[in-house]
Description:
By secondary structure, chain A is of the alpha+beta class. Chain A has helices spanning 2-6, 13-56, and strands spanning 63-66, 72-81, 93-102. Chain B has helices at 2-10, 17-61, 66-82, 86-91, and strands spanning 94-100, 111-118, 122-129.
Amino acid sequence: xxKLLLAKNAGSVESFLTIAPQVFIFLIxxxxxxxxxxxxxxxxxxxxxxxxxAISGGGKNYARYPLIGGGSVLLLExxxxxxxxxxxxxxxxxxxxxxxxxxxxxx
Amino acid sequence: MKMIVIKVLKYxxxxxxxxxxxxxxxxxxxAFLVLITAVQSKSIAIAESKNLARQAVRAYVxxxxxxxxxxxxxxxxxxxxxxxxxxxxxxxxxxxxISCSNTPCFSRGNKVTATIKVxxxxxxxxxxxxxxWR
Lengths: 107, 134
């Protein structure tokens, strides 16, 4: 085993040329997975915050629309730049929309 | 002819690790990429539809009267739709269906179910009861 590990082996330019794009594709894919997980996490976090605000009040980042017959609808539209491993100087914007009914005015 | 085929099959050839690696990884990566995108879009659709159904039914059962109940539920869905781009709306059309266990729908203790359909293959339902002391 030691012999195998210590053995000198010359690399080839061809191997580098084939491996490099593969690694690049892999990193892009991994980045997509990372962005998607972040998007899902943000969706649930913002929704839980908005629902909490609809019950107990507070928070100012959302828009409040009056609901027919009383109460209101809280709408949160959040746009954030996604964290990336490979940057092409193009920002990837994630849009998260949360909605909650605030029934305080009607009851 | 038969002999040639056997000869070709028996012919020993040194494999190339790089070529084998490429043959294995390229289709695997592509399939994995498609799968990830599909899973992500499905989970977003599930989260959206479940929440929207819950909020729509909440708006319905907290209505001050039966005339406004449906309008309130549809208003919630329309407000949500207003945040989406025209492309997103055309790709994933959102529809609301209100159903009740008894008629008239807006009566004390009645179970109201709101079903949200996103596109052609995603639907979510949420149920609530109309307040008994209303």
